């Protein structure tokens, strides 16, 4: 087993989260299809839910929701299910996904799973009334990185070749909340986040991860180009990835990419990924900002 002590710590953190979790009240009119296999192998990590908004439509614009958890814990359930339900309050159908955790398979399996979700949506759009002209991606923490990496893959010929990506899908916009965007800059002293080194070693499966071929295809900051999708970036100045967000903003400006950034001041005392937690009112503000940003990029705004 790789890194047994670190894995024990991860399991204890996960257990603590599960014990303190209080589910939100599910709306009585919620329309949700649960545990659809996007890869037909029966594995729980290849399941997704589709949560439909209250207002019925012929086709629904899509938000793919990618959970966080340092690549090594969490799932589409609990906090991320609650957040996905909130995302469905607008007029988007939310595709809330699991993916393979790094404690089971190393990078880039996590990215490959998200790409498989895109393939599944492309193949099953009519069955689930999904609008392929309006695909959006939301990610928190590790999910924020994965969301941004997908944006790079679909717009970078070099990454398309490495990840064997051939599907001509357009992502209308991305929201990356509390994310890191490069494993080198993530290790710099201006990022104050616990267990960074251990998280990265587990993700890549080795302490010498910088020597891996896959590592050369892992940086959001290095692969953004002028075709990268519009992106909403949100973070907090308290023990999160503010400087990663600032570095991403710099690269976006250099490439003339439309973006919106909101860094909450550290004096507001908002923890990492506060936006998925029910107790923080600022989470509602961030959610509304995300909706407004996405709405500007819908191909047909309809009644939004």
CATH superfamily: Alpha/Beta hydrolase fold, catalytic domain
The total count of strands amounts to 8
The assigned structural class equals alpha/beta
Q: What number of structural domains do the residues give?
A: 1
Query: Which shape, going by the Cα principal axes?
Result: globular
Tally of individual helices:
9
Largest sheet: 8 strands, mixed
Low-confidence stretches: none
Query: Might you state the CATH topology name?
Result: Rossmann fold
Q: C-alpha Rg, in Å?
A: 18 Å
> What is the first-to-last residue Cα distance?
50 Å
Strand content: 15-25%
State the name of the first-level CATH class: Alpha Beta
Task: Produce the secondary structure layout.
Blueprint (H helix, E strand, L loop, with lengths): L3 H17 L10 E7 L9 E6 L7 E7 L12 H9 L5 E5 L11 H16 L5 E11 L1 H12 L3 H6 L8 E7 L18 H9 L15 H4 L7 E6 L5 H13 L4 E6 L17 H14 L9
Parallel strand pairs: 3-4, 3-5, 5-6, 6-7, 7-8
Antiparallel strand pairs: 1-2, 2-4
Helix pairs in contact: 3-4
Describe, in short, the structure shown:
The chain has helices at 4-20, 79-87, 109-124, 142-153, 157-162, 196-204, 220-223, 242-254, 282-295, and strands at 31-37, 47-52, 60-66, 93-97, 130-140, 171-177, 231-236, 259-264. By secondary structure, the protein is of the alpha/beta class.
């Amino acid at each position: 087993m790789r890194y047994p002590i670190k894995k024990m710590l991860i399991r204890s953190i996960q257990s603590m989260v599960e014990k303190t979790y209080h589910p939100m009240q599910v709306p009585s009119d919620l329309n949700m299809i649960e545990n659809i296999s996007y890869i037909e192998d029966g594995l729980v990590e290849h399941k997704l839910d589709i949560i439909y908004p209250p207002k019925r439509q012929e086709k629904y614009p899509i938000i793919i929701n990618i959970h966080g958890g340092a690549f090594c814990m969490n799932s589409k359930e609990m906090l991320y299910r609650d957040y996905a339900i909130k995302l469905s309050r607008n007029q988007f159908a939310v595709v809330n996904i699991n993916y393979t955790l790094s404690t089971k398979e190393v990078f880039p399996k996590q990215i490959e799973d998200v790409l498989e979700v895109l393939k599944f949506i492309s193949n099953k759009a009519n069955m689930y009334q999904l609008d392929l002209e309006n695909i959006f991606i939301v990610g928190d923490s590790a999910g924020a990185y994965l969301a941004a990496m997908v944006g790079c893959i679909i717009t970078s010929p070099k990454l398309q070749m490495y990840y064997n990506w051939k599907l001509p899908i357009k992502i209308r916009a991305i929201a990356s909340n509390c994310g890191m965007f490069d494993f080198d800059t993530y290790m710099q002293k201006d990022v104050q986040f616990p267990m960074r080194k251990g998280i990265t070693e587990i993700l890549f499966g080795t302490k010498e991860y910088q020597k891996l071929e896959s590592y050369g295809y892992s940086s959001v900051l290095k692969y953004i180009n002028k075709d990268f999708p519009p992106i909403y970036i949100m973070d907090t100045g308290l023990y999160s990835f503010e400087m990663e967000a600032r570095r991403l903003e710099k690269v976006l400006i250099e490439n003339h990419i439309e973006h919106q950034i909101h860094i909450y001041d550290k004096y507001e005392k908002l923890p990492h990924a506060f936006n998925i937690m029910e107790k923080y009112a600022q989470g509602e503000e961030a959610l509304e900002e995300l909706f407004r940003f996405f709405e500007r990029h819908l191909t047909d705004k309809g009644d939004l």
